[in-house]
Write a structure and sequence with these properties.
single chain, alpha+beta, 6-stranded mixed beta sheet, globular, 136 residues, 3 helices
Length: 136
């Protein structure tokens, strides 16, 4: 796929996320997907889907605004600002009803029109502070 097609795949993926993941991940995520986040074991597609759906339950109005999207070859770099309202349990913290905002950057590797691998740097520390979590 061309870089512009890869960017469009990621735009559609973010639209799917903003809609609350209404359906299967098959159109977006390769069956042999591998996800990388700092300090977390690598994720397969099943774990990615579980994590994303858990997040949406906790923040059902979550929206991810694309701030930058850059593509070269089979890679797409995305910078987003995520916002939502804490309406369900998240990481052991009961719903607060508070609004949150945090940033993230992800590099995606695209293969055969699907996301095959990703490397994310998500500001979960900022998110957790907004939920009232204290640093250990």
């Amino acid at each position: 796929m061309e870089p512009d097609q890869n960017k469009e795949l990621i735009r559609r993926w973010i639209g799917f996320a903003n809609a609350g993941f209404p359906g299967a991940f098959d159109d977006f995520i390769a069956s042999d997907y591998v996800g990388h986040l700092p300090g977390v074991p690598n994720q397969d597609r099943t774990e990615l889907e579980r994590l994303e759906r858990t997040f949406v339950k906790a923040f059902p109005d979550s929206q991810h605004s694309i701030e930058d999207i850059i593509a070269e070859g089979n890679r797409v770099v995305l910078r987003v600002i995520s916002r939502g309202t804490h309406r369900g349990e998240f990481e052991g913290i009961a719903a607060t009803g508070g609004r949150v905002e945090f940033t993230g950057m992800v590099i995606y590797r695209i293969s055969s029109g699907r996301i095959a691998e990703s490397w994310g740097e998500i500001d979960f520390a900022r998110l957790m502070r907004q939920l009232g979590a204290r640093a250990g």
